[in-house]
Amino acid sequence: MQKTLFVLLLSALSLWAYSDYDLDGVDDTIDRCPNTSMTELVDMHGCTIKNLEGEHHFDVILGASYSQIDPTTQQKTDTFTTTFQADYYYKNFSLQASTAYFNSESTVSSSGQTDSFIGAYYQLNPLNSLSLRVGGGLILPTYDAGYGNNKLDYTASASLSYLFNNINLFGSYSYTMINDDDASYLDTNNDQVDIYYQNTNAFNVGIGFYPTSRLYTSLSYNNSDSIYEKIVNIDGTNDMEPLETTSAYLFYTIDKHWFTTVSYAYGLSDTASDHFAAVRLGYYF
């Protein structure tokens, strides 16, 4: 009886003494790499030999936003938008598709699907701390406001990011070829309005910070040409100024799969929305 109790006691002490925080099968007392993922195959020292996770990844992102400008008429009015985005990742290559549906208090165009987007990107890393992302895409005319904006548009972009310690400096530039035809329509007073489209340039610069491994925040300045070169009505010609905003952004990793983003932008020009706010929830797999 005493022998049996002694054996049970030794077994219990052995089980209690064994600790494997990252569940890789190597005791913490000899684990040289104590935070390996469960998708990694490790050696006798607990360090990665091979990552068993696949190289193909996806994410799906749903969002909601509020702005004070109609996306089609450029009228200053409350607008609510729901967004959908899907991404595919393979090594340094990625594909993106997105669309949105808006509801506005504008008297000319109250609601509808916005133009949709499909694009492809490739990321280069000339240095460990420096990355360059280049790509392009198609803007599909999934919404027609009746102003000649029913053509396929093309866009190309490049973004640069430099990371040192927990600070990130970034900037980007994009160029969009607008193929929409100039158009005319009658306003609510039955007066003719002529719309002239133009190709657009857009850029932004900013600084980001990682307070923790799960949280990223940034501040940026954004400048983009309006797709409307000018609008001519009974009052004369209105040459459209660039849309200027300053914005704050937050990205939070909830767990291995779920993440969320929150953003806010303040309009610096009359053509931009005075306030813009958005929240998005994504699932990565």
Describe the structure.
- It is a single chain.
- The protein is mainly beta and 285 residues long.
- The chain has 2 domains: 2-50, no CATH class; 56-284, monomeric porin ompg (Porin), CATH 2.40.160.
- 6% of the residues lie in helices and 57% in strands.
- The protein is built from 1 helix and 19 strands.
- It has one helix at 2-17, and strands at residues 40-42, 48-51, 56-67, 79-90, 93-104, 111-113, 116-127, 130-140, 153-164, 167-177, 183-186, 192-197, 200-209, 215-224, 228-233, 236-239, 243-253, 258-267, 275-284.
- The strands form 3 sheets. It has a 12-stranded antiparallel beta barrel. It has a 4-stranded antiparallel β-sheet with strand order 11-12-15-16, with no helix packed on it. Strands 1-2 form a two-stranded antiparallel sheet.
- A hairpin with a 2-residue loop joins strand 9 (153-164) and strand 10 (167-177).
- The chain is elongated, with a radius of gyration of 26 Å.
- The chain starts with a helix and ends with a strand.
- The relative contact order is 0.11.
